[in-house]
Amino acid sequence: MKEILTVKDLDLTFDTLDGPVNVLRGVSLSVREHERVALVGESGSGKSVTARAILGLLPERNRRLNGSVVFEGSDLVTERPSRLRERRGRDMTMIFQDPMAALNPVYTIRNQFLAVLSRSHPELNAKQAEARMSDALRDVSIIDPTRVLDSYSFQLSGGLNQRVMIAMGLISRPRLLIADEPGTALDVTVQQQTLLIMKRLSESYGTSILFISHNLGVVRQFADRVCVMYSGRIVEEATTAELFANPRHPYTRALLASVPRLSSDELPEPIEGSVPDPREPIKGCPFKPRCALATDDCLQPIPLREFGTQRVACIHQEEFA
Ligand SMILES: Nc1ncnc2c1ncn2[C@@H]1O[C@H](COP(=O)(O)OP(=O)(O)OP(=O)(O)O)[C@@H](O)[C@H]1O
Ligand SMILES: [Mg+2]
Fold it and tell me: CA–CA separation, 52 vs 292, rounded Å?
C-alpha cells in the first residue's frame, strides 16, 4: 500500500532558559493508505511533539526542526505556512486528548463546525452545510444532531463532546487523521466507544490514522501497525500482531510486561529507572541505563535494523530469540 505520510530523521531541539533540550532524535515513521498506526511510549518520550511537528503546530520560536515530513508528495517542514494551514483542517486533521479543552465554550457547536467547513468546503451553501453537519454527527451515532449543534460544549457530556470532536475531525474527509490520546480524559467505556467509532469511520472513508496512546490494550484492538517510541526515537516498529506476539526491543518487552493482564495472575512489572533527561546528550542506545542486556557496545549509535517486517534498534535482540 502507498505511503501517504513519511517522516524522516525528524530532529527537534527547544532552546529553553535551561539550555537546549533535544526532544526528537531522528524520528522516522510512515503511515500508508487506509492504515491505522499507533505511536506508543512512556510519558515524555516525544509522541505529542511528533504529532505537532507533523501538522506544523509547534511553537514558532526557540525551536530547531530538521528532517522531513512528506505528506502526499510535499514536504510540510518547508511548506509555506498559508498552504500548510489550508491542508491542515482539510487533508489532515487532529483530535486532541481533552475535548473540553479543544472546543471553544463561547461558540455553539454549530458555529465551530461552520468555521471548520468554511475552510474545507467553502463551496457549500447554508442548507448544504447544515445537512453535512447533521450527517457528520449521525456518523458518530448522535441521534439528535440539531440539539447538539444548538448547544455549547459545556452543556454536553464528555462522551458527547468527544464524538463531536471526531465528527469535526472527519467532516472534511481528511486523508490523514492524527489523534493524540483521544478520550483519555474520559472514562474507559467512553474511550472504547470513541475508538470503535474512529475505527468504523476510518474504514468507511478510507482515512489513515496516526494514533497516540499509552494504553496497549487499546492499541492492540485498534492499530494495524505500532511504532514504539523511547526518548525521542523509534526503537521498534512492527505489525500489531507481531509486536504483541514477538516484541524484540528490550524496552518494548518491558512496556508489555508493565501492563496488567486480565487473563493472567502475574503481577505487572513496572519499568525500573526513568527516561533520560532530554537536556543531556545520549550516546548510543537511550535505553541502556535501564536494560538488563546492555553492554559497552550499546554506546555506539544503534540504527533500526530489519527483521522480516519488523524494525528494531537493538544490537542484542538475537539473544532473545
Ligand atoms: N514547548 C516546549 N518547550 C520545551 N520543551 C518541550 C516543549 N514541548 C514539549 N517539550 C518537552 O518535550 C518532551 C516530549 O514531550 P511530549 O509532550 O511530546 O511527550 P509525550 O510522549 O507526548 O508524553 P505524554 O505521554 O505525557 O503525553 C518532554 O520532555 C517535554 O517536556
Ligand atoms: Mg503527549
Answer: 33
Give the ligand whose atoms come closest to the C-alpha of residue 18: 1
CB distance 179 to 199 below 8 Å: no
Q: Is the CB of 16 under 6 A from ligand 1?
A: yes
The residue range of the domain holding 258 is: 3-100+174-320
Which atom in ligand 1 lies closest to the alpha carbon of residue 97? 27
* Cβ 46 under 6 angstroms from ligand 1: yes
Q: How far is the CA of 24 from the centre of ligand 1 (A)?
A: 10
Q: Which amino acid is at 192?
A: Q
pLDDT tens string for the chain (321 positions)? 899 999 999 999 999 998 999 999 999 999 999 999 999 998 889 999 999 999 998 988 899 999 999 999 889 988 888 888 888 888 999 988 777 778 899 999 999 999 999 988 999 999 999 999 999 999 999 999 999 999 999 999 988 998 999 999 999 899 999 999 877 777 778 778 888 888 998 999 999 999 998 888 889 989 999 999 999 999 999 999 999 999 999 999 999 988 776 666 677 777 888 888 888 888 899 999 999 899 999 999 999 999 888 999 999 977 655
Residue 78 domain-assigned? Answer: yes
Which residues lie at CB < 5 A from ion ligand 2? 47-48
Three-state DSSP at 41 gives coil
What amino acid occupies position 31? V
CATH classification at residue 71: 3.40.50.300
